[in-house]
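We treat protein structure as text, and this decision shapes the records that our systems exchange. Because each token names a local backbone shape, the row as a whole describes the fold. An entry from our holdings is shown next, in its original layout:
>
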Amino acid sequence: MAPRIPTPSEKLRAFLGTAPGRQVLGSVIGYFDATLVGTEHLPERGGALLVGNHALFALDSAVLGALLVREVGRHPRFLADRMLWAIPGFRQVIAAIGALPGEPESAEELLRRGELVVVYPGGVDDSLKLSGDRYRLKWKARAGFARVALRAKVPILPVVGLGIDEMYDVVGHEHVLGRRLFGGARYDLPIAFGAAGTLLPRRVPQRYLILPPIDTTGDPESKADVERVRRATHDALEAELRRERERKG
């Protein structure tokens, strides 16, 4: 039996196709002067798994989603940390945009249905990193995304987000509220400063690079095949992020 998957709001999707909806997309994109490069690698139809680096408060997801809708006319589905559904009021927002907890069965089903699915293997570790770790992947040995793509028989498209780690200066973490809300030190909330020292993100130009697809032929039960796909995806992203770190000094 296929898993029960949250359905995005059809009213929201319809709205984004109207003139006011396009204006909203343009405002999100325009605030960060965001651009999307490499759209030729995206399939016009059919499933694909987009795998990327992540930024604070998942604002990069909103910008990338807006770009994909406006530039290629495809509405991506985002996999998110299941603890986000515990935040009062927030669950309605993420349900409306069609985000779903990062569970492999749901991701595979969406990909087989021909949808674009976006995943950040670093999750909160990547999103809540300090500014000293800008543009460094925090994936550890996570390989679930590779197994999902192998099982669904869809390509992986690495997506590099540049500029996204400069919206805030993250100088430390508090050690009380996040643990009480979510039950562990992994969720220690960031001490972050954006525009004029507030929580408003800085208007930093953002650039999203869709890289050539990763070969996902192989056996999802083979550790060697899963590791090959994981490593190829990681290394493709890391090569671009390393160039960005060197450019920033």
